[in-house]
Design brief:
It contains 26 helices and 22 strands. The strands form 3 sheets. It has an 8-stranded mixed sheet with strand order 7-14-13-9-10-11-12-8. It has an 8-stranded parallel sheet with strand order 21-20-19-18-17-16-15-22. Strands 3-2-1-6-5-4 form a 6-stranded antiparallel sheet, sandwiched between helices. The chain starts with 7 loop residues before the first helix and ends in a 5-residue tail after the last helix. The protein binds phosphoenolpyruvate and magnesium ion (MG). Phosphoenolpyruvate binds next to strand 16 and helix 21.
Length: 755
């Protein structure tokens, strides 16, 4: 059967003329519906646009009652039009009234029509409205008529995106494109930021939709596809994939799509119908996206991302745009929105103008998170679809504490957050003033406050925050952000730089703590039932002594002629420490034998983070130069509650009698043995908990740099002796008061302690 269509090329030419006319938006829409109705030989053609309140409003019609324009409306999901919007796919029905979703709108006078064809108005996979044609006869619309309607829908989508329809939109609701969005993901790095969206992979807006010469467009497509294929082949062949920030698996998927004939054929067909090459890629991608967004299979959704990336690359190729961040054009208050990003890419942006980072993926231990946290950038992750919802330049607020993002926020939300930011800034200024004040309690007890670090970018905080030293340097971070196993020389260089940046302040290096959730991309990880209790940290180091010895040698060389402190994680038996110590001695002997200088004063310590050590304290303290309590792990093993599992991580209270008694036992034993003791888990950085630790007898705490100010403010208003006198009796089994956290809060309020 022949279609009624006067030819897609002719329609597109007419559309181009209408788009070029200097007329108002309503008139343009009115002309478009007349044009479509005439071309498809339909009695009705109507445009429905999605408003911010989720209602599809009739914006233009040929054939239905004119009075219904801007009056008739349907909710998303209501009626056939609502169904198309909800599912983002066309409906082609010879007998619309027989469809279960059919809803009759009396104000439009549509009762006379039987056949119905509707397509979603899509942009980057988002539904902005619905375009419909109707006929009295029972007919099925043909493939090229569906195509023609889809192409017209693209033209209308560009009108919406360009803001052309805002002038005729209802004042109080606005269009869906400018709808405020409040989304909750996962808090990755704390802090609050107000700013404007910068898309990490900026979408290239295709404005030139309609081709003048289809053959020339097809040739442009051929050229661009060839260049795209070559660039992917090159990347895969270069053997240096990680350096580009892309993963081999992703590139393999890219290659598969780039060579997929089905994909290129669809694009060619859209060109044959009169689109420019870039508009054809966008159209095919938009259809594909709408279809795949309904997929719940995570693998297929992942592939959708790959296909999206590839389509963007191809459009860039066609339009001659560069890849990667254009840092020179960054606004002063950039909040980067990305699907995902490598740690190095974040570093490329520089720190100055970035107020936040929002990711569709990203987990608490991903590399970019580690770097973001080190740079003090508020971060929220696991926000589905945020990249397609956000437009470059949109106002956005990121709340890295609550894990929330407000896109195009309403004014009251913006005011509330601006106040929150001012409040935080005032507090930060207060803390900065404390920087050079002594870290001494009201009753004259000196408390050493050190900071935790893991990357070179952390080191400037040492002076900024006024830390006494680095109490925990997590050496595995260098390994986690690298693309290949760092060689001995690279390790040594990093440690030398750390020691130089510390300018004589003590640094406690912790030997590699990999395994568990700390995965190295280039080291094949073995599947374990309980990775936190598995083959990790020192266990791995002792079983693969080559790895540990390389690191020890790098540390000893970096510390030549200076003080060097090294500690070992996840020790469960004193004998493990003795074996590690033996490796150190052997390395020392080796270095001396080859005429190398060695550290002047080498001290070796153990992290207390496995409860078994609590019952070996005497012999342990006899062997070590110092100990450091890793309260994160110690608590997870103490309560058998996985620290990474949100269901149980906060189930038990660190301020419970049992755990406080355990901590007291450690600090008492260390004091008796005259062995220095630090606590470097997250507890040390929370003012209320740090207060309790001082009450138990801890005098040396190591924490994230941001926590130093609040903890110092707390301890300078604390009488440590008085707190101990009130706290310690409450750890006795006979004491009637068992809720220690509650006691600590009341005590702080009563004594006016700055928490
Ligand atoms: C700890 O376990 O408390 C600790 C400081 O080490 P990490 O958090 O790196 O496991
Ligand atoms: Mg630990």
């Amino acid at each position: 059967m022949r279609s009624n269509l006067a030819g897609p090329r002719l329609l597109l030419r007419r559309l181009r003329e209408v788009m070029a006319e200097p007329i108002k938006a309503q008139e343009r829409l009115d002309k478009i519906v007349v044009l479509i109705a005439a071309n498809v030989v339909a009695e009705v053609c109507s445009v429905y646009i999605l408003r911010a309140d989720g209602v599809l409003e009739l914006y233009a019609t040929e054939g239905l009652k004119r009075e219904a324009v801007h009056q008739a409306s349907l909710r998303v999901g209501q009626g056939l039009v609502g169904l198309i919007a909800a599912e983002a796919r066309p409906l082609n029905l010879p007998n619309a009234r027989a469809h279960p979703a059919f809803a009759y709108l009396p104000e439009t006078g549509e009762e006379a029509y039987n056949s119905f064809l509707g397509v979603p108005i899509l942009r980057a996979g988002r539904t902005l409205g619905v375009l419909v044609v109707q006929n009295q006869s029972h007919r099925t619309y043909l493939e090229d008529e569906v195509e023609a309607l889809q192409t017209t829908a693209m033209v209308i989508a560009e009108m919406v995106a360009a803001g052309e329809l805002e002038a005729i939109a209802q004042k109080d609701t606005g269009l869906d494109l400018s709808r405020p969005i409040h989304a909750t993901g996962v808090a990755l790095a704390e802090g609050v930021g107000l700013g404007h969206v910068v898309l990490h992979e900026p979408r290239v807006v295709v404005t030139n939709l309609i081709a003048e010469d289809s053959e020339a467009e097809r040739q442009r497509l051929d050229g661009a596809i060839n260049r795209l294929r070559l660039s992917i082949d090159d990347l895969l062949a270069s053997g240096d994939i990680a350096a580009t920030g892309e993963h081999r698996e992703v590139l393999e998927a890219y290659r598969m799509f780039a060579y997929d004939r089905g994909w290129t054929r669809k694009i060619e067909e859209a060109i044959r119908n009169g689109l420019t090459a870039e508009a054809a890629v966008e159209k095919v991608q938009s259809d594909m996206r709408a279809r795949m967004l309904r997929q719940t299979d995570p693998y297929l959704r992942e592939r959708l991302h790959d296909l999206d990336d590839l389509a963007h690359r191809l459009i860039r190729e066609l339009m001659g745009r560069e890849h990667g961040p254009q840092t020179s054009e960054l606004p002063q208050d950039a909040i980067i929105v990305a699907r995902n990003m490598g740690a190095a890419e974040l570093l490329d942006y520089g720190r100055d103008r970035i107020r936040g980072l929002v990711l569709e993926e990203g987990g608490p231990t991903s590399h970019v998170t580690i770097v973001g946290r080190a740079l003090g950038i508020p971060m929220v992750g696991q926000l589905d679809d945020i990249v397609s919802l956000a437009d470059a330049g949109d106002a956005i607020i990121i709340d890295g504490e609550a894990g929330e993002v407000h896109l195009r926020p309403a004014q009251d939300v913006e005011h509330a957050y601006a106040e929150k930011v001012r409040f935080r800034a005032r507090r930060q200024a207060q803390y900065r003033r404390l920087r050079n004040k002594p870290s001494v309690t009201k009753d004259g007890i000196e408390i050493s406050l050190q900071m935790n670090a893991g990357l070179l970018v952390d080191l400037p905080h040492l002076a900024e925050a006024g830390a006494a030293g680095v109490g925990l340097f997590r050496t595995e971070l260098q390994f986690m952000v690298a693309s290949a196993f760092p060689r001995m020389r690279e390790q040594q260089a990093q440690y030398e730089q750390v020691l130089a940046a510390a300018e004589g302040k003590p640094v406690t290096f912790r030997s590699l703590d990999i395994g568990g959730d700390k995965v190295l991309p280039y080291l094949r990880s073995i599947q374990e039932e309980n990775p936190a209790m598995g083959w990790r940290a020192l266990r791995l180091g002792l079983d693969r002594p080559g790895l540990l010895r390389t690191q020890l040698r790098a540390l000893l060389k970096a510390g030549a002629g200076r003080d060097l402190k090294v500690m070992f994680p996840m020790v469960a038996e004193v004998a493990e420490f003795m074996r590690a110590k033996d490796l150190v001695e052997r390395e020392l002997k080796h270095l001396r034998r080859h005429g190398h200088a060695v550290p002047e004063n080498l001290r070796l310590g153990v992290m207390i983070e496995v409860p078994s050590l609590l019952f070996q304290l005497e012999e342990l303290l006899h062997q070590v130069d110092f100990v450091s309590v890793g309260s994160n792990d110690l608590f997870q093993f103490f309560c058998a509650a996985d620290r990474g599992n949100t269901r149980v991580a906060d189930r038990f209270d660190t301020m419970s009698r049992g755990f406080l008694r355990a901590l007291k036992k450690i600090v008492d034993a260390a004091n008796v043995a005259h062995v220095p003791v630090t606590l470097c888990g997250e507890l040390a950085g929370r003012p209320l908990e740090a207060m309790a630790l001082i009450g138990l007898g801890f005098r040396d705490l190591s924490m994230s740099p941001a926590a130093l100010g609040p903890v110092k403010a707390m301890l300078r208003s604390l009488d440590a002796g008085r707190l101990s006198a009130r706290l310690l009796p409450r750890l006795d089994p006979g004491h009637p008061e068992t809720d220690i956290r509650d006691f600590l809060k009341r005590y702080a309020a009563e004594m006016d302690i700055a928490l």
